[in-house]
Fold this protein.
Amino acid sequence: MNRHLQAARQTVAQLFPSQPSRSKTVSALILLSTSCLLWGAAELSSRPQQVGARETDQANVAAATLWSGASFPVENFQAYTSPFGYRSDPYGGNRRFHYGLDMAAPSGSYIRNWWSGRVVEVSDSSSCGTSVIVQSGEWRHIYCHMQGHVVNEGGRPTMVDTNGGIRIREGQDIASGARIGRVGMTGRTTGPHLHWGLQYQSSWVDPALVLQAMYDSQRISSRQ
Ligand SMILES: [Zn+2]
């Protein structure tokens, strides 16, 4: 099995340890939906029928509940400009792995925290540019190329974006959907976008799989 899909499947159970009895079915559902997206419906066309209608309904309800705490990470989203995986590097053309998903949005658009957690790092000194890293259980989410800069406030590194009204301190707790910065061009970038990285137990996960699972759960919710 594709290792990123495997990781995405594991993540679901991990995020919601309070619902262990359903996690297996839900994981399977998310695995199916993401697989359909990435590898075409033909490969999986016979599988959904293997699940009874009643079981599917239960899994759908559970899936909708599972992802309801997640927030789409950027406002005024325009396009996915670079996927997770190998690509020709924009600087120099070498083939390199891209550990995140690039999401274009106009400069100044607000970035929103994907999942409630704790700010474990703010930085402005790497190719990631002005950045914030949030830890939510086993998940770590990384936001790069933002506006603003880092200052030291009482011994704590703090990301400050004055014009955006943003102040994010290392160690602070932050809610899902909270504005944590604005799209900029700091670090190594050729245009304004959010580079969004996701790690689960220190392994990189394709953020597109997570967004697909969130999208699917919203569609399920709207049908309830
Ligand atoms: Zn990127």
